[in-house]
């Protein structure tokens, strides 16, 4: 469960599902997604 906040940080995010879902559901206004496996995150975000 994620409480509503201004910003969410997901360290070790893997595919970025949690920050993306939190923004879509209005749980936060912005999110920081970080992971050492850059390729997985970039594939998810289609960058």
SSE map:
Layout: E1 5-11, H1 17-24, E2 28-34, H2 38-45
Parallel strand pairs: 1-2
Overall description:
The structure is a single chain. The protein has helices at 17-24, 38-45, and strands at 5-11, 28-34. With 47 residues, the chain is an alpha+beta fold. It has one domain. Strands 1-2 form a two-stranded parallel ribbon. β1, α1 and β2 form a beta-alpha-beta unit. The radius of gyration is 10 Å and the shape is elongated. 9% of the residues are buried.
- Strand line-up in the sheet with most strands: 1-2
- Strand fraction equals 25-35%
- Give the overall shape, derived from the CA principal axes: elongated
Alpha-carbon distance between the two ends = 28 Å
Question: What's the pLDDT, averaged over the residues?
Answer: 85
Number of strands: 2
Which residue ranges are poorly predicted, with pLDDT under 50 across at least 5 consecutive positions? none
Q: What is the percent of helical residues?
A: 25-40%
Query: Radius of gyration, Cα only, in angstroms?
Result: 10 Å
Count of helical regions: 2
Order of helices and strands: EHEH
Main pleated sheet: 2 strands, parallel
How many separate structural domains? 1
Helix and strand content put the structural class at alpha+beta
């Amino acid at each position: 469960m994620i409480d509503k906040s201004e910003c969410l940080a997901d360290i070790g995010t893997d595919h970025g599902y949690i920050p993306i879902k939190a923004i879509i559901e209005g749980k936060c206004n912005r999110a920081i997604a970080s992971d050492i496996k850059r390729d997985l995150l970039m594939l998810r975000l289609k960058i």
